[in-house]
Amino acid sequence: MRKKGILVGALTFALALTGFGLNATSANAATSTITIWHNLGDTQNATAVKALSDAYAKAHPGVTFKLVSQPADNYFALLQAAAVSKKGPDLVLMWTGLFALQYKSYLQNLKGTVSAAALAKEGSLNWSSPAFNLANGPYVMPFDRQFYIGFYNKAALKKAGVATVPRTWTELYAACGKLKAAGFTPLVYGNGGQSLGALYYPWYDASYIAIGQGGVSGLKNLYNGKNQWNSAANIASYKKYAALKSKGCTNSDVLTKTNNLDDFIGGKAAMIIDGTWDTKKFTDAMGTNVAAFVPPFSDKPIKGVVEFAGQGLSMTNYSKNKKAAAAFLEFMTTMDAAKIVDAAGLISNVKGSKTSNAVNQQMLDFAAKGGFTRFPMLDNVLQGDVVDAGNKILPSILGGKTSVAGGLKQMAQVWANLAVEKRGEIAK
């Protein structure tokens, strides 16, 4: 795991505002070892978790952390097995949305566990609360605000004669032709970045396809079934998506490539669909030559952006160190913690915090200054069985291994097989 500079600063940890009190918290945690499980590998998010725990331990002698990196592909299965034996960690890396809620049987609701004052400092906590209602209490303390987003190489587009960043399918296909003629892979795919499985992660793209179709209803209707996966609208959209490869917009090995980030950083590829967890890698290597753009997977320009409190730490309800773990979660809501997250190249989820990365700021400006609507990550608000199926089926559609109609029919069947209570209007 690569280690980066840690902004410890003057960690005053103003717990007077939280109701805990510095002396009481320190005394309780004096000999505590807090075990954290995560599936972050060596990403910037892993750097942030390590830096946060190091900073807290330095300010609280006697508190130690045991960070355990678990494999990404069976991470949640390992968490469930640990919950059965009640011998698992105190804190777990958890994604917000239905990822957290479907595992709430072994997670501690943070309402009343972490002070109301601390919770009020965090944004988007509703997305990890039952029925997505904050009054029900969240199960995750997010540490970063994430985007599903596109990145492009300014020099590549200029060399190819692409005057403006594509905003629609038609503009994207036209740009691909020019970029390919200039010697670039227009849009590179692979399982780099978060590396959540053997195939590339399809939900970055699927989120924008849904937004492009119908905004908020485009996401919600996939959950409640008003828009079946094999609807005429979805088939039309995913045919345009599959055409990315058949028209030469992508690398030929979309299903097997593992070094897609290297292709983008090294200048072989002009565009990539990824997220904020890799922004710093890109800006460190490419400087001001990299910028963000909204994936143009729509017939009309999309005025929405996927901006979401994507992941954080949850407390297990069987933890034997709940008070010590709660104190650390309180620390995560402070500006000192926000600076540490920023130093790792991420966008802090603490309200009022700032980013020092210009490309991260560009993303924030889409909604804050550009009037774009903020949307959650589609995979975080869909049923887990549907997401699991999509992880395999949607890449196979782009890769040309499965027909659009056949693949979306499979997706529709997975939804139809869900328990009735998972097909309602309210996500639980």
Could you characterize the architecture of this molecule?
With 428 residues, the chain is α/β, with parallel strands linked by helices. It folds into two domains: 15-145 and 310-360, D-Maltodextrin-Binding Protein, domain 2 (3-Layer(aba) Sandwich); 147-307 and 366-422, D-Maltodextrin-Binding Protein, domain 2 (3-Layer(aba) Sandwich). 40% of the residues lie in helices and 14% in strands. It has helices at 22-28, 44-59, 75-85, 98-101, 116-119, 154-160, 169-181, 203-224, 232-246, 260-265, 279-286, 322-331, 335-343, 358-368, 384-398, 404-416, and strands at 33-38, 64-69, 91-95, 141-153, 185-188, 269-275, 290-293, 304-315, 373-375. Strands 1, 2, 3, 4, 5, 6, 7, 8 and 9 form a nine-stranded mixed β-sheet that branches. Helix 2 (44-59) crosses helix 13 (335-343). The longest helix has 22 residues, at 203-224. The model is unreliable at 1-29 (pLDDT under 50).
Radius of gyration: 21 Å
Main sheet properties? 9 strands, mixed
What portion of residues is helical? 25-40%
Runs in which pLDDT lies below 50 for 5 or more consecutive residues are 1-29
Rounded average pLDDT? 90
CATH structural architecture of the largest domain: 3-Layer(aba) Sandwich
Give the C-level CATH assignment of the largest domain.
Alpha Beta
Key traits:
9 strands, D-Maltodextrin-Binding Protein, domain 2, disordered N terminus, 9-stranded mixed beta sheet, alpha/beta, 16 helices, 428 residues, globular
